[in-house]
Design goal:
By secondary structure, this protein is of the alpha/beta class. It has a single domain, classed as Aminopeptidase (3-Layer(aba) Sandwich). It is built from two helices and five strands, in the order H-E-E-E-H-E-E.
């Protein structure tokens, strides 16, 4: 996965409230999640991964924040793609909102 420096700079300049988590494979970026924290909600604005291992690593990172936030919101064009990453109903008291 290659993103030009201007692409990362654009996020930092135009969306200073956004944070980025990166996954690496063989010293190269293999995925990212762009998110923001606005208690009580952590919002994932965008995600991409080249492979399943990177995807799982990124979502483990988001899951590690479950004690710090009451709500998690995922903005996605296709919420079906995220269902396998979400806890099954009844296994979590924390709501997950797919937008």
């Amino acid at each position: 996965m290659i993103r030009e420096d201007w692409w990362w700079d654009n996020i930092r300049v135009h969306r200073p409230q956004y944070e980025v988590a990166l996954a690496y494979l063989n010293d190269a970026v293999s995925g990212y999640i762009i998110y923001s924290r606005n208690y009580p909600t952590l919002t994932v604005h965008e995600s991409f991964a080249n492979d399943v291992a990177s995807l799982r690593a990124l979502w483990r990172f988001i899951g590690a924040h479950q004690t710090a936030f009451e709500d998690f919101s995922i903005q996605t064009a296709d919420p079906e793609l995220q269902y396998d990453l979400c806890p099954k109903r009844g296994t979590s008291k924390r709501p997950l909102h797919l937008i």
